[in-house]
Amino acid sequence: MSSGTFRIEKDSLGEIRVPDAAWYGIQTQRAVDNFPISGRRPDRDFVLAHVAIKRAAAVANRQAGWLEERLAAAIIDAVDRILAGEFLDQFVVDRFQAGAGTSHNMNSNEVIANLANVALGGRRGEYAPVHPNDHVNMGQSTNDTIPTAIRLAALAKLPRLCAAVRAMADEYAAIAAREADTVKSGRTHLQDAVPTTLGREFAAYAWILRRCAGRLEAVRPMLCEIGLGGSAAGTGLNTAPGYPDSAAAELARLTGEAIRPASDLAAQMQSMHDVQQLSSTLRDLALELTRTANDMRLLASGPRTGLGEIVLPAVQPGSSIMPGKVNPVMFEMLNQVCYQVLGQDAAVAAMTQAGQLELNVMMPALGSALFDAMDWLTHAMDAATERNLKGLRVDRERCREFLHASVGLATLLNTRIGYAAAAEVAKTSERSGRPVREVVAERGLLSAEEFDALVLKAARDGRPE
Questions:
Q1: Distance between CA atoms of 9 and 18, rounded to whole angstroms?
Q2: What's the pLDDT at 423?
């Protein structure tokens, strides 16, 4: 029944006004009214993953003879339009909603049912011949579709995230190759240490990021094990024979991933262990990114009173009061994102352990926290790589100045004159402010030229002899 710009829909709790233009229905509208919490609509990859599950279910139910061909075709056509990017604005339930995600599940069911019914000559909100629960949700439950959608959405995001990690690693590696012979002072405890090369320093950043990417990829097989077909509480209630395998095969075809039913369907709705594994790996990546971002800020500090060994591209003025000031804003941004990701992981961990008996009802917020972490890291790394790492310049003269000013160079004398005598050289250099090379030459230990050659060999090869 239509009333002005609204139509009246009815469910077991009574009647509700739904906007005439809406493709969703009464249960979605109830959720919109109940949960005006964050103002954030569902994640796009999650929406697409969830409607892809509806397509897979329709295919599996049609194959089993449970769903009439005409209705299955209408459901599949409706889903395909959504997967192509239409009607995404119709997924409107807040990220903080009823436990387990029933509201989002019904949002998908209602949108697809209304699209299918209009295509078959029906009207929005009347749910004939296609019903949201009886047909679109056939053989399914919120309990198995939502955790499956979370895993599928994470799988969709994973390649973009890994590409961002590897792109940053590649840029660090390119700088490392370019600066392989740029000798500089190493620093440990933020104090002068033995000589190294900027190439070695940056190659290490590339290596650790590539290892992080490998660890992210290692989570993929676990995410491919889904609980779809478990229906309510993992029992498989009201599912067609062969449904888990058929639905998983269709999802594998749609996603290009090795989707398969878990050997224990109930476990995949009780536990979010694999999702927590991914979140933990995101946390570990964020910790490494924080460390390397801080290094970039330290190495670029100055320009006159800091280290200033690298110069980051200027992307914006750095101060509203100090003229000419330029700050390392891209790596400051990356730091902030990483700290937020640590918070998201803490939330995911808390919500993972909050599952009770047959179901984890915290899944809507758990999924949202995971998706945010993945997207934020992807975008932040891409931006930092494009806007700052590309175009990074090394001040080789500055590196040389610090190198020869470092008292850490005395360490190179250990194998020639012993630790105690080398320590005395270091103390003399520190007290007098004179370079180690001068003290060494003055004492007749090595000529200045011989000492320079010793430094270069040690920095490049890791040993002075």
A1: 7
A2: 87
Q: How far apart are CA 372 and CA 67, in angstroms?
A: 37
* Same-domain pairing of 218 and 360: yes
The residue from 116, 138, 160 where one domain ends is: 138
Q: What is the count of structural domains for the chain?
A: 3
- Chain centre distance of CA 98: 25
The parts of the chain modelled with pLDDT lower than 70 are: 1-4, 320, 323, 462-465
Residues 164, 109, single domain; the answer is: no
Close Cβ partners of 386 (under 8 Å, ≥ 6 residues apart): none
On whether both 284 and 371 belong to a single domain, the answer is yes
Among candidate residues 319, 320, 368, 447, the one labeled active-site is 319
Helix (H) or strand (E) holding 10: strand 6-11
The predicted model scores a pTM of: 0.92
Rounded Cα distance, 372 and 381, in Å: 14
319 is catalytic: yes
Residue 173 CA neighbour count, 13 Å, CB half: 11
CATH of the domain at 413: 1.10.40
